[in-house]
Fold these 4 entries.
Entry 1:
Amino acid sequence: MNEKSNELVRREIITGSRRFSNYLLTIVLTLGGIGFVLSGCSSYFKINLLPFADPTQLTFIPQGIIMLFYGVVALTISIYIILTIIWDIGSGYNEFNKEENVVRIARNGFPGKNRKILLSYSIKNIKSIKLSIEDGLNPKRAIYLCSKDQRQIPLTPVEQPRSLQELELQASTLSKFLEVSLEGI
């Protein structure tokens, strides 16, 4: 997360789906999907379409059709990930502006009527900054903006969990900047 700040305005740039892991996953799914589709087609047509294997020995039902199905599913998922990368879903910024007394949270969504998501809150309506840490099999570490009307707005992007030290530093810096309390530590 990139940060730009001065004494009265703090802006955090949020990385969306244009991450290295998504690019790598798309490449792996595309290559695997093509391989499975070619294997399924080779077993149906009895023509070897793969240079490194001989799937013509497979019976089309059930093995070839299952490989064809897995290939189509992998290619469909890779197309979906490619589209989220192109549209940069989830990218945006968090802006904390003391000059205008407002907090703006902007994100890109899927194309359509509500593609740009912009939330604005008055700094007066902010109760606290909450740090939420859940460990276990699927760890979740997030910073929330808590409003006086009991809403919790997530400020951290969806990504690999960051270190506790980094998360605590960001939350405490933000709570000092906004002059609100810090919960959850």
Entry 2:
Amino acid sequence: MSLRASLVMATLGRVAEIDRCVDSLAAQTRCDFELIIVDQNPDDRLVPVVDRARALGLACRHLRQQEPNLCLARNTGIECASGEIVAFPDDDCWYEPDVIEQALSRFEQQAELDGLVVRWCEAGDAAPQRISFDEFSRFAGPPASSITLFFRTVRLRAAGGFDRALGLHSWYGAGEETDLMLKLLREGAWMAFDPQIRVHHAMVASTNDSLRGTFERTRRRARGTGALYGRHPLPKWVVARGLLSPWLGLPFQLLNPSAFARKLGLGVGRFEGFVGWHLNYRLDGNN
């Protein structure tokens, strides 16, 4: 059976970076896909980008969303997807030319495969493997960033997509991809890692933050990790390690203010997320 992919790109604020991603998609060796751009900008800055994508021969759909929320934008794309396989390229990532061909081939050859994690080249490497809940509950295994994830659309819809309480533009500022993986694995999804399928995303560290900015940015993202500790049946030692390790290492960073701010942000944020999730603190923190 020949399958088709829907690539859901949620974007806000960027323009030039999207052109690089579009160029990599136009160079794919297999063209059985659509690009769904979920535009969270308040203006028309992406109209030329969409026009250019279409001029390059891409089947490109341009959806608008007024509320900035990454997971909500991705879920909008999931609901609108016409392909049997759905993936989530970031607006500043790019694919190697055979990504679509290889990913679709894996799903076509393995009817039991529910999801596929591919290799994020800049984040390291690992051996091919089937992914288990036990492994992911220990935060082991390959990096499962959104850019590396391919799912059967029907399985993702049945799971409810991404939890909009997590991720960018929410109080729990990260963790949505790991949350989805843990949920699917707990439900018995068959997931595999294939390092031969390669995607790219630069590893750019923020160097312009003030110490306060570093603390707040780290704290916000760490709340997402803390929420995972509270939401999923992770091993108790994993939760204890995650909550305590930033504090244990804090005194060793006193001579490095930036590292100290990051460690403090991790400690505070993970604790807030863990406690907040147990207190049913959701979305904007007001319910």
Entry 3:
Amino acid sequence: MTKKKTGRPLRDFDASTFEQLCFVQCTVDEIELILRTDQRTVDKWCKRHYDIDFSTAYKRFSSGGKSSLRRDQYKLARKNASMGIWLGKQWLGQRDIPQEIEAFNGKLASLFDMIKEMKTEKDFKSTHTA
């Protein structure tokens, strides 16, 4: 006599569908919705199918999507200045000069102009009063 299996049958998913969902950076909620299951079930499936947990599998399969997105952003930055600026800030640590520094530079320039005017007035008075 054979022993009858008990419990719910194991869920199985299409591996390429799961990998593509990770590749296009789907959230956990979106993966659950598309596969019509919950994260615990997906995690158990990943352990059976890949021998790793869900978060490790997600990192592995989403990295290809990140590089693809990065490549597209570089292409777009060639045509779109704002994309180039954004990439420079995000990846190269570039930043805009804060407005306070610009205001300070403006005040400093005004101060230099005032000093020049005072000097020229003094020179004018000294040459014309004698």
Entry 4:
Amino acid sequence: MIEIFVLAVGSAFWPLLIAVTIVALRSPDPPRLLSFFLAGALLTTISLGTVIVLFLADTPLVDRQRSTFDPLVYFTAGVLVFIVGIVLLRLPPQPKPPRRSSRHQGGSWAERALARGAPLAFVAGIVFNLLPGVLPLVALKDIAELGYGTTGVILTVTGFYLVMFTPAEIPLISYFFAPERTGVLTNQFNDWLTANGRRLLAWGALALGIALVVRGFIELF
């Protein structure tokens, strides 16, 4: 369970999730966009995640004979995450975007999608999460190995994705209790993240990639 939690925290730094959250926070109505995006994202990830876990649980891939499957999963995930970190480090600096955009004029593809309104944010939450990321796939494999029943699987998968989507959930909850203060803080945080976020994500991906490869070596013995 500790490994699943760590993977959920690592998944929270998925670059696309961070980018979508930042775009939503810069919009004229962040709570509405975040709510619809999260609704689509959680509906998709929990449903697909549960199906994947139940499917894996019925295969020989997650039985006690894990000497070949588990190391392969960890090695593959570790290498892919490490490559993501290298790519992020090599990307050129990103210019500072306008603090808020009123309508979908230019901007990134994520910004154009979310700026079209709440229904498109809901669809984006679905489309962006149709394919599980590398770390969620490792976590789903781990959940399948726990041997839980259907209810336990649903609860564990739900908990995993609730942790994963905390970058969007925390500001959304904060907007309901202190909207003005949250607006100020998110603007400050966005400025900091624009300047430092890519490098932070890159070094986090490199560290996590190395950890997964080491985990793969441990599984060999």
